Amino acid sequence: MSPLGMNKAELRRNLLQNRRPDPQKDRLVLENLLSLNEFKKADLVLTYISAESEIDTREFINKCFELGKRVAVPKIAVHKMMFYEIINLDNTIKGKFGIPEPLIIHEADSAHLNEQINNNNTFCVVPALACDKRGYRLGYGGGYYDRFLAEYIGYSAALCYFDNIIGIPVEAHDCAVDMIITERGFGFGL
Predict the structure, then answer these.
(1) CA distances from residue 133 to 4, 20, 36, 141, 152 in whole angstroms, order as listed
(2) Residue 134, Cβ neighbours under 10 Å: how many?
(3) How many whole angstroms from its chain centre is CA 28?
(4) Cβ atoms of 51 and 32 closer than 8 Å
(5) How far, in whole angstroms, is CA 89 from its chain's centroid?
(6) What is the mean pLDDT of residues 165-186?
(7) Residue 98 carries which DSSP code?
(8) For the chain, domain boundaries
């Protein structure tokens, strides 16, 4: 249970109802994200395309393109999340759960990319409704990122507002990220 006495579903519902975008905080999160050495060293960046109420990743994605980094975004298929390389944000549509996904998909390219994910210097940006001080995150409840992170050997970072660094219930299948990035900095126990 969380310190508020809520289970994951109740905590998730509460956080979603009270979440408001904050462009000023988003800008600070972006600055902190771009300053990470692990990001600077990465050749391939795995990131989600933010929905309206999430910390904005669109400017981050465009910055990756400017820096010459390869960018891949997820698409949900049945119970698995696969990453697909994109060259801009124009060719995306709202996919499952209203989450922006790549529009044009070449399965052979994706299979090749997903083989490279654990062989290249990769950096994965993970969405979070909340995180705890150990790097565990509360997502949207599908378990897609936990299943992905269980096999991923690259570097992972969750984006989260500082006010949402709280106690969250952790289950055996949950996977911690390597770093939490907020508007106040990055690390654990911020």
Answers:
(1) 16, 22, 18, 20, 21
(2) 12
(3) 16
(4) no
(5) 16
(6) 93
(7) G
(8) 8-166
- Dihedrals phi, psi of 66, to nearest 5 degrees: -60, -35
Q: CATH top-level class for 8-166?
A: alpha beta
How far are the Cα atoms of 115, 123, 129 from residue 141, in angstroms, in the given order?
26, 23, 10
Tokens of 188: 């654990």
State whether residue 93 is helix, strand or coil: strand
178 forms beta bridges with none
CB-count burial class (<10 Å; 0-12, 13-18, 19+) for 158: buried
pLDDT, tens digit, for every residue of 40-74?
999 999 999 998 788 999 999 999 999 999 999 99
Per-residue confidence (pLDDT) for residue 120, from 0 to 100: 64
Q: Tell me the one-letter amino acid at 135.
A: G
Beta bridge partners of 100: 94
> CA 22 to CA 159: how far, in whole Å?
13
